[in-house]
Amino acid sequence: MNRQIRVAVAGASGRMGKEVVKMVLGDESLALAAAIDRSHEGADIGVLIGQAPCGVLVDTDLERALISSGADVLVDFTTPQAVWNNAVVAVRAGVRPVIGTTGLTKEQIAELDKLCRERGIGGIVAPNFSIGAILMMKFAAQAAKYMPHVEIIEYHGDQKLDAPSGTSILTAQKIAENRQELRQGNPNEEETIEGVRGGYYNGFRIHSVRLPGVFAQQEVIFGGFGQTLKIRHDSYDRAGYMPGVNIAVKKAMELQGITYGFESFID
Ligand code: NAP
């Protein structure tokens, strides 16, 4: 049997982090090397996820945890404020980053790619690890070739820190690659309430809805003569992201530099 991939999880006691810990503990080809979080220092992460103790205690110091555990991969589901520093610490320690946390800028991703290549390692930054969401983005990019008038509405819980969502930005980028920049709407349009038309991207609009009770949804609406096309994805459970994270952890071991977007692994 091949050596197990040693996985550290940052944000291990958060909502996504706990699912990642469960996924790692449930896959014999992976070993949980470390669990890092701001809170719960010293607690057994197995107990925190509602299972038997697994012997991995929560550490609050990422660098110490990565070096002492001999981690191969760091999976990060923390916060937009913490993720950049975490990623740099990981790459400098020779640990491959798999980043699900949203909020990294294009420039930061390019810098991370450079740092990874200097170290001869690779990693993945993916704003969405769910297969249904990836297909939604692919279909939207395809539709944009034929129906260039488009708006995106994304829905998330009201405690989400960044807006628009990383998924909507990635969808917008993919749409923009498939259509000429086109400033939509009436050129004389005026907003009587500021921001009501949403964020402007490459001539079209992105709208971010934030409400309690919502998990993660996105609708891409195309308008043409006498017709509209709506492509919609709804996520209901964090476990739905884990098959994607599992594949990403394994792929990260073979990559050089940063791959952006999980869709690179889906034909
Ligand atoms: P969450 O429940 O708030 O979890 C974040 C965890 O990170 C918390 O336990 C937090 O600790 C911890 N943390 C904060 N700063 C840290 C640091 N410097 N080092 C280590 N741990 C730190 O959030 P979530 O719902 O799991 O979401 C996490 C991120 O994943 C968000 O950016 C979200 O948008 C993103 N996300 C991505 C995908 C995807 O498919 N890529 C899917 C869902 C969510 P405290 O509680 O003490 O602050």
Automatic annotation (TrEMBL):
Q: Name one GO molecular function term.
A: 4-hydroxy-tetrahydrodipicolinate reductase
Residues forming the Dihydrodipicolinate reductase C-terminal domain are: 132-264
- UniProt pathway: Amino-acid biosynthesis; L-lysine biosynthesis via DAP pathway; (S)-tetrahydrodipicolinate from L-aspartate: step 4/4
Please state the span of the N-terminal signal peptide per the UniProt entry: none
Top-level taxon: Bacteria
The residues that the entry says bind NAD(+) are G11, A12, S13, G14, R15, M16, D37, G100, T101, T102, A126, P127, N128, F129
Q: What is the top EC class of this enzyme, as a single word?
A: oxidoreductase
Q: Catalytic activity annotated for this protein? A: (S)-2,3,4,5-tetrahydrodipicolinate + NAD(+) + H2O = (2S,4S)-4-hydroxy-2,3,4,5-tetrahydrodipicolinate + NADH + H(+); (S)-2,3,4,5-tetrahydrodipicolinate + NADP(+) + H2O = (2S,4S)-4-hydroxy-2,3,4,5-tetrahydrodipicolinate + NADPH + H(+)
The keyword Oxidoreductase appears for this protein = yes
What does the entry list as the binding residues for NADP(+)? R38
Which family is this sequence assigned to? Belongs to the DapB family.
The record describes the protein's role as: Catalyzes the conversion of 4-hydroxy-tetrahydrodipicolinate (HTPA) to tetrahydrodipicolinate.
Protein name, as recorded: 4-hydroxy-tetrahydrodipicolinate reductase
What is the organism field in this record? Paenibacillus thermoaerophilus
Task: Name the lineage.
Answer: Bacteria, Bacillati, Bacillota, Bacilli, Bacillales
